[in-house]
Prior knowledge:
It is built from 9 helices and 12 strands. It is α/β, with parallel strands linked by helices. It has 3 domains: 8-16 and 194-281, 3-Layer(aba) Sandwich (Cobalt-precorrin-4 Transmethylase, domain 1); 19-98, 3-Layer(aba) Sandwich (Rossmann fold); 101-191, 4-hydroxy-3-methylbut-2-enyl diphosphate reductase, catalytic domain (Cobalt-precorrin-4 Transmethylase, domain 1).
Amino acid sequence: xxxxxxxxxxxxxxxxxxxxxxxxxxxxxxxxxxxxxxxxxxxxxxxxxxxxxxxxxxxxxxxxxxxxxxxxxxxxxxxxxxxxxxxxxxxxxxxxxxxxxxxxxxxxxxxxxxxxxxxxxxxxxxxxxxxxxxxxxxxxxxxxxxxxxxxxxxxxxxxxxxxxxxxxxxxxxxxxxxxxxxxxxxxxxxxxxxxxxxxxxxxxxxxxxxxxxxxxxxxxxxxxxxxxxxxxxxxxxxxxxxxxxxxxxxxxxxxxxxxxxxxxxxxxxxxxxxxxxxxxxx
Length: 282
Ligand code: SF4
């Protein structure tokens, strides 16, 4: 049954595709219709988009061995130099859609490594972006939680970088703590503004809403973090599409906010807003 109260729907000032993801999508759209085009891993953490690409002939290979010939697209997260080398050895044509901001972290990591710094990366150990960054240093250490620092030795020189989607507060806390572990500490804040802007505007909206709906892949780390932050301010649900929403949650709400992770396309956001608004009208 439709919600008969005067529910209003608001969209966060910054939501959805970031620059790097949009760029990767544009690069891939140029390849539609060609034969033997693969993305190395899902292009973005959004199953609906990955399925659409598959329908257009862009296949997703989780493993290098699954790509026999043709073109392979490196997604915005990037890969390690070693993976690039393996792809080259297979004589595959590489289409590099690595986000330029991620590329910058690769460069800085390599530079720190060459200058003799023990590289420390703040990030999720198993995240593809972090694996790619780590591959630019011989022995980089990934710190996921601040407690992980307790097992660190002391070094003469430590160089700190971050996965682009980490929180600034956590990065600052880590860099403060690291001063006790090195004679010299070089810090490169490589957190991307897109993440911060999405987080800030989502929290700002959440403070004024009865409910926040966070739209994006369940496998998208930055979307999950948006939901986590919003849930500290108001009731929050994370869904991939309107059909996932338990509509009963809308019944007593007057102000509903929508935000979306950096890998959520505009058409899904627009579809959600439209359906929420027509649900209100009944
Ligand atoms: S979040 Fe930032 S670094 Fe990551 S892909 Fe988007 S623009 Fe690039």
